[in-house]
Design a protein that fits this description.
Length: 408
């Protein structure tokens, strides 16, 4: 007779990093939650319970200055996501003051962009579209490039760099030497491009976000050249790649739940709570990291000072101690305080824009696609474990209705 041994925290963490688990990591997350705070063999800590993750996101002893344990990146050259107060607060304040006013009142424009992308398939029915390549990818890259003042002819280059750079967010030991070399090349290309763009704005400023960051009215808060370049790189990835996954993951959930798709078609207002449920049920950002500035007592154990902490956001989002029937997609779920945009000081700056892009995209797909259905289920997934989403999402449809309704 053989006896089975429960997988360790390390085994489960390794599983969710593996490509063959990318389509459905949630059974592994469920097993993690049996021990919501657990130690890995390398001395880091795996946190998978909703209450514990939320506590650490709001605990000042849980530091975001954590992603470079070998200190390869100088502190001054790290993005605000890798900074603690007071520098984090200064950088975030500048970005917020320049970013938020520029995205207000954009819903009509977002609706026009979505309509234009779908209109390209009028006359294709019966036909197919790849939701990733034809909608989820070009929509946010166009928006972030417009905001930053990137010329339209450079959007393809900018988007390509973003996709290549996201692989660098995954643990180093999951990447090949070839991938690491390609990552360094992409970083060099991005730096060169951004330096050229910054030089242009220095002599010819406009009303775009880049110009606003460069010529912020408070001289004490103007970013230095390194901070500016790093912030632009962050906005590129955070303002684009996460939204790609949000739209793709949400479309996949809708097509797997045709009753919900029918409800959205009949009631466009459902898009607002539906996006929140996508962010809970299948979030575009699956995990984050912190480090302990002091001993932290949590869930009956102590995370020692100096420890690296891995916050499994997607696991917490399906914690039955917080959400009823957490593995079911409920578009109008009440009290949906998900972790899809993180929390605490580092709550996603672009949350408002991402929500609007997804709401408009889902509503348009539901309204315009006739008899949509998945071609392949599960779809192929991207290599990234942290920013998780389909590489392609092929959808067959009988026809495409004209765009006759305003964006919701």
């Amino acid at each position: 007779m053989t006896t089975s041994t429960a997988p360790s925290a390390g085994d489960l963490f390794a599983q969710v990093l593996r490509q063959d688990h990318r389509a459905d990591p949630y059974p592994s997350y469920a097993r993690m939650r049996r021990r919501p705070v657990d130690r890995l063999d390398d001395g880091s800590w795996l946190v998978s319970g909703y209450r514990e993750i939320r506590q650490l996101l709001h605990d000042p002893r849980s530091s975001a200055d954590r992603l470079d344990p070998q200190n390869k990146i100088p502190k001054a050259a790290r993005s605000l996501l890798m900074q603690d107060p007071p520098l984090h607060d200064q950088l975030r304040r500048v970005v917020t003051e320049e970013f938020i006013p520029r995205i207000m009142g954009m819903r009509d424009h977002l609706g026009e962009l979505v309509a234009r992308l779908l209109d390209a398939h009028i006359g294709d029915g019966p036909g197919r579209l790849d939701v990733v390549a034809d909608l989820a990818y070009p929509l946010p890259v166009t928006v972030i490039c417009e905001l930053l003042g990137v010329p339209p002819e450079d959007e393809a280059l900018f988007g390509s760099l973003a996709r290549r750079l996201t692989r660098g967010l995954d643990p180093v030991d999951t990447q090949t030497e070839e991938e690491l070399r390609a990552l360094d090349e992409a970083r060099g290309e991005l730096v060169a491009y951004l330096e050229g763009l910054i030089a242009e704005r220095r002599t010819d400023p406009g009303d775009d976000l880049l110009s606003g960051l460069m010529f912020h009215p408070d001289p004490d808060e103007v970013m230095n050249p390194v901070q500016l370049r790093v912030t632009l790189g962050l906005l590129l990835i955070a303002g684009h790649e996460t939204t790609v996954n949000l739209i793709a993951n949400g479309t996949l959930a809708l097509l797997r739940n045709p009753d919900v798709l029918a409800r959205l078609r009949a009631d466009p207002d459902l898009a607002t709570p539906l996006v929140e449920e996508v962010l809970r049920y299948d979030p575009p950002v699956q995990m984050s990291a912190r480090s302990a500035l002091a001993d932290i007592d949590i869930a009956g154990t102590t995370i020692p000072r100096g420890s690296r902490i891995r916050l499994m956001l997607a696991a917490g989002n399906r914690d039955a101690m917080r959400f009823d029937d957490p593995d079911r997609f409920v578009p109008d779920r009440a009290d949906n305080a998900h972790l899809g945009f993180g929390g605490g000081l580092h709550y996603c700056i672009g949350a408002t824009l991402a929500r609007a892009e997804a709401q408009i995209a889902f509503t348009a797909l539901a309204r315009r696609l006739q008899a949509p259905r998945l071609v392949t289920d599960p779809p192929p997934y991207r290599e990234n474990a942290i920013l998780r989403g389909p590489e392609r999402l092929l959808v067959a449809f009988d026809g495409l209705s004209p765009d006759h309704a305003p964006a919701t």
